[in-house]
Amino acid sequence: MKNQLLTALFILYTLVSYSQEPTEDKKIPEGEVYTSSQSVSINGKTINLDTETGTIQLRDENDQPIALFGFTHYKKSGETNNRPIVFAFNGGPLSASFWLHFGILGPKRVVINDPDYTKPAPYTIVNNEFSILDKADLVMLDPVGVGFSRPVGEAKWTDFWGVDQDVRSIGLFIDQFLIREGKYNSPKYLLGESYGTFRNAALVKHLQDKGIAMNGVIMVSAVFELQHLLFGPGDDIAYLTHFPTYAATAWYHDKVKNKGNSLESFLEEVRYFTENEYAPALLKGDRLSVSDKASMAQKLSDLTGLSPDYWIKANLRVTNSEFFQELMREEGETVGRLDSRFKGINEDLLSQNAFTDPQSDAISAPYIAAFKDYLYNDLNANKDLTYTTTASGREGFKWDWKHKGNVSWNAQTAISTLPDMTSAMKRNPNLKILILNGYYDLATVFYGVEYSINHMGLEPELRDNIIMKYYEAGHMMYTHLPSMEKFKKDVDQFIDETSKP
């Protein structure tokens, strides 16, 4: 009996020991990188590129694997490590970086029928003469949840899905990538679009606190304070920040009484009106007299094309979705959110709010299809791997909006990374910020950015480190050929000026 017991214990010990040994299936993957040679022609000069795409294993602060982090890296062939490097990403949250990648930054771009619908495949893919690759190496990042990026080991999706979680993981990637490439002593830049600018405002301080100071940060279609985008009850800020873009949209679609000499001169008048007449009227609330309300409704109508009666019914407060639907209701059309130059069929003429975004409908298919064709066939990515364009379809996806930089409030509508950027600039007076704004962007409105910048409490000499550029296009201004040319010029000049020793 004793021998049988000993035998049983030995077998049990052997089984337990064996089960604890790492098996092939339980090994944490290292990531896979696929290489290719690409080239781009800019200003008549061909630049040869060493390219890699795929994933690398991301480690936490204790060097434990937490993710396979997806990226595409373009490096000028034969170049030294002193060349500037740009880390770029889109927004969402969470969106993969193919928009910027195949729209303006990479060596190739897809041709869009701006500002109309692009016909189905075959799409036209061309050399991108507006790429930044003549000025800098480029790393396109796909945060965990999109692209090929995913958690590994003990990590979970929720470890990456949130304002601070996102900043931490991208900060880890940039730190480890700089070490990998020997680029710690090179000029360094962040470039983000949409939520990517909200991310950038916090990320630049996060990296700076860890000893990684950026030469510059490029903000494409920026937002730093969510309050400016959300029409909260009793909060008039979003109505004010959106109004100049309503007016710009009406100007573009010939819905205003007096267009003036140019869009810029028209918008100067709109800014003045917003600050000196519209804002005080909203501030009075229900104390505004009936006659003053009627007078204000007429002025709002003159600048936006919406009828005075509509403004009265809306209590002088029109949300963006209501505006999309109302501006061209009589023509049976609705205008775009991401770019209000785009028009689409109004699916319900009785609806108060727009059902869809014509700009998104018009460009999503060509961008996604053309990029994936390039990714799998030109960049040699593994065709057994799924490239996820957005995390919104992932089961259980939910973003954690809490931010440690907001010490005095917790409400989602008040989340802001502007204090982070303000602190980073005050602690690093050499930091330069380039902000690119689309006049017809109703997703992240230009006047909201101006409001934020004007409330940072910066001294004039530090305020001069923020450079604002404007485009007669929308959120993705790079769908518009003249704006592509201007984008290239503005970003080139910024990198040239900020990368000098």
Explain what this protein looks like in three dimensions:
This protein is α/β, with parallel strands linked by helices and 501 residues long. It has 2 domains: 329 residues, Rossmann fold, CATH 3.40.50.1820; 129 residues, no CATH class. Strands 1, 2, 3, 4, 7, 8, 9, 10, 13 and 14 form a 10-stranded mixed beta sheet that branches. Helix 2 packs across helix 10, helix 3 packs across helix 4 and helix 5 crosses helix 12. About 4% of the residues have low confidence.
Main beta-sheet annotation: 10 strands, mixed
Distance between the termini: 82 Å
Secondary structure category? alpha/beta
Strand content: 15-25%
Give me the number of helical elements.
14
Overall radius of gyration: 25 Å
CATH topology call of the largest domain: Rossmann fold
How many discrete domains?
2
CATH class of the largest domain: Alpha Beta
Overall outline: globular
CATH superfamily of the largest domain: Alpha/Beta hydrolase fold, catalytic domain
